[in-house]
Amino acid sequence: MRKFKTESKKLLDLMINSIYTNREIFLRELISNASDAVDKLYFRSLTDPDVAVGRDDLAITVGYDSEVRTVTVSDNGIGMTKDELDRNLGTIAHSDSFEFKAAQAEAAAESEPGEAKGLGDLTDVDIIGQFGVGFYSAFMVGKKVRVVSRAIGSDEAWAWESNGVDGYDIKPAERAEHGTDVIVYLKDDTDEESFGTFATEHGLIQLIKRYSNYVRYPIKMEVTKSRKVEAPEPAEGEQPSAPTWESYTEVETINSMIPIWKRKKSEVSQEEYNEFYKTDFHDFEDPARTISVHAEGSLNYDALMFVPSRAPWDMYSKDYQRGLALYSANVLIMDKCEELLPDYFGFVRGVVDSSDLTLNISRETLQHNGQLRAIARRLEKKIKADLASMRDDDREAYERFFEQFGRTLKFGIYQSYGMAKDTLADLLLFYSAKQQKMVTLDEYLADAPTGSDAIFYAAGDSRERLASMPLVTTVLAKGYDVLLCDADVDEFCMMAMGTYGEHAVDGDDENKQPYFIKNVGAEDLGLTTEEEKKEAEEATESNAELFAAMGEALQGKVERVVVSTRLTDAPAVVTSEGGVSLAMVQVLKSQPGADDLPDLHLVLEVNAKHPVFATLQAAHEAGDDGKVRTYAGLLFDQALLVEGIMPDNPLAFAQAVAELMK
């Protein structure tokens, strides 16, 4: 027995038990190696006239024997000599595929244009194996592996055999044609592992379709089928016999070979895209958008992405997994590569295929993710451009999309502390109180009065209630629009954005500043005229004692009581200071860990022109402090109800109203 030419026991144990984390990928690795061997033969035929090979004759065959518990992967590729078996399989981490690819690239670089037949194509060889350890994944499931190979142009075949522990033997063997057979003798089943499932027709077909469906050569396998047995015609007077069925076997190509994402968009119908999406991503509805990308240059990759028509049921749960399927040279590397998508585009489904990625030796993760980040940036721009196109060209479809996924885009701005607003802000839609429809921020500004410098919004739990709020109707009466935000993430999103776009100051294009985003109930909107300010100041001074008495009655509930400069019909309104609105606090209260809430500084703004204020003045002048306290409490609770907030003591509020009705 020959010893492995490295620290065999330690290194082999490391590869089998540590590098690979998923036992079922052994078949992917063996098929990838077989594909490499077929590739090498085909490309050699382009430059060697003595090698006559037709591409249609090249294939990979997978077989099994349930009784003996073996899985066999065969190819009719270039094969290996005795020395190559010793070098490639006896030295762990030696990669003949890597050497082949490097040699072809060097030969192409040194040759003159057109010097050799097909030489220009050799630099684009998508050889899958680069590290030479994929073969050893077979020992994760096999107690012994036997490799029988015959090199092209040789009359001899050799067998390499090992239990993956101490070493290996190489002995003469028989093989009718060039190529290689890898026979894996499966381990015995245990309570934890059922290795026998790999030696079944269903198990192998499932693994081929999952990991190797797009290998460019046909993967053939003998499959069991059934057919109806034609019964003889019954004699006269006899009943026809019941139909019978018989089983038979037939060799079928299991993989589809040509990935749909490698085909030009002009060559694929939307129906084909829809069918691929529904089959591979387990959806029963057609996608809302299909995005096809073929990139060539410093980084080569193909991508096919889909925007679903509806949000998956678990999209907002902690168990939801985002990411695109990642392929390298048509071989599945990762089911869900999260690095390819930002969280806010996590609803996008699809695949990315690039042979330029530098994988680690198990191919299950990336060795350097700089390439991946570059692809991710380009895909993000592509998704953004496609959504913007849908927004502009098919508004009805975009509004349906936004109804499903708008919350994700808004949360993306909030979660990034506003860093993602340049990407996402112009994709957002909000309901316009003035225009009575969903609008973008740009459409809001296009309809704003000349000289506007802000975007106004109101946040709450109901669009209808927001539309009737006193502060909203006041802003509308002044000719400005208000965005009615009824989603729980809306106010957080608006605060994270803070500003949007730019406008010229006093018509000076050289001097620009952003539009500020303002909550109508949380800050000074800048809409009060000097005359209105003066009237409010005078009313505040002349009623200082009344406001002091009301403030004392509402002690612990409000910071102060003031004359409002923005009410028209309502008697009072509750506003907040410090950037935290009533609506935001209500949302926070409904979240887990709601004990630690930000301080809320409330102000009761009173309409000095409303008849209720005259009643308060009269009660104060008459010295009826009890009535002042009661009316102050009623005004405050009434203002809370308008905001959609239940008073702290609903019973006391109801009793006070009942007293007024006597």
Automatic annotation (TrEMBL):
NCBIfam families: PRK05218.1 (NF003555). This is Chaperone protein HtpG. It is found in: Cytoplasm. One of its GO terms (molecular function) is unfolded protein binding. Keywords: ATP-binding, Chaperone, Cytoplasm, Nucleotide-binding, Stress response. Coiled coil: none annotated. It comes from Adlercreutzia caecimuris B7. PANTHER family: HEAT SHOCK PROTEIN 90 FAMILY MEMBER. ATP binds at residues 29, 33, 75, 80, 88, 130-135, 180, 363. Residues 22-190 form the Histidine kinase/HSP90-like ATPase domain.
